[in-house]
Amino acid sequence: MRQVVGKPSRVRRGRARRTIGLTGIAALLPVVLAGCSLDDAFYLGWPRTRPTTQSEQMFDLWIGSTVAALVVGLIVWGLTFWCIAAYKKRDTDTELPRQTKYNLPAELTFTALPFVLIGVLFYYTVIVQDEVTEMSDDPYACTQVTAFKWNWQFTYTDADCEPLTGADGRPVTETGNSEYIPIIVVPNEDDVRFEANAEDVIHSFWVPDMLFKRDVIPGGEDQTTRWEVDFNTEGTFVGRCAELCGAYHAFMNFEMRVVSPEDYETFVNARVEGMTTPEALELIGQDAYATTTHPFDTDPASGEAS
């Protein structure tokens, strides 16, 4: 009987090619199935519009960290596949490969490099964190935020964060309900402050395009959450509660309008004079009602949200 020489090697090579092909297809599937354009892919799922300086800094930190992680991954994958190819047992091999132990330079390198990477990431994280949490002594504008089950109330204040009083003698507020999405209007300026409290349980003030959230905690002045942002673009942005707070947590939306400083002053003055939020928004050429989200049906008898 004639012996076929080399057939097992050809079979193994064929299996290797199929394995490589399937691996390539598996790597491409997430990109294809995600349905992202090439431009969107480079944003790694982050919003394209980032209305604050702080969100730009956090975006840069995240992208830099991701690129560093990919570089490390490529090096590890490259070394792994190189070892697989270079030290693969062949038919002519009759001895075990030479064992290498106690390679001091390699051990020092692979111990020191992770600490260098951790140190660099920690350094830039602290810098961005300090920028995000920085508070000014004299904010340009201030708004009080009150979260409750299951909506929001915004109180317009002066630069000292003292509530403005309207024509009726009461604070100028914007309160949402199950049929109305509340709209908070802020100026496109630096040092715009927010002071937030909750009336009942923990909520969370979250505008996704700003790339961070702030927990809103009950307990009065001692639990007030304060932060500032530097807006750098005008626009309309959806806001949500990011803390599971009860049955209608998912319906607890609001809308943020970033307008010019001049329009902001006109809007606030109109509210002080007695105009409603829709009327004051129309006065400065804005849509009277929310455009990024809509009220949900919160009637349990309806069976589902409309």
TrEMBL record:
Its main location: membrane. It is a multi-pass membrane protein. Keywords: Copper, Electron transport, Membrane, Metal-binding, Translocase, Transmembrane, Transmembrane helix, Transport. InterPro entries: CcO_II, CcO_II-like_C, Copper_CuA, Cupredoxin, Cyt_c_oxidase_su2_TM_sf. GO terms for molecular function: copper ion binding; cytochrome-c oxidase activity. GO terms for cellular component: membrane. Pfam families: COX2. Residues 138-270 form the Cytochrome oxidase subunit II copper A binding domain. It is an enzyme of class 7 (translocase). One of its GO terms (biological process) is ATP synthesis coupled electron transport. The chain crosses the membrane at residues 61-87, 108-126. It is found in: Membrane. Its EC number is 7.1.1.9. Belongs to the cytochrome c oxidase subunit 2 family. Subunits I and II form the functional core of the enzyme complex. Electrons originating in cytochrome c are transferred via heme a and Cu(A) to the binuclear center formed by heme a3 and Cu(B). This is cytochrome-c oxidase.
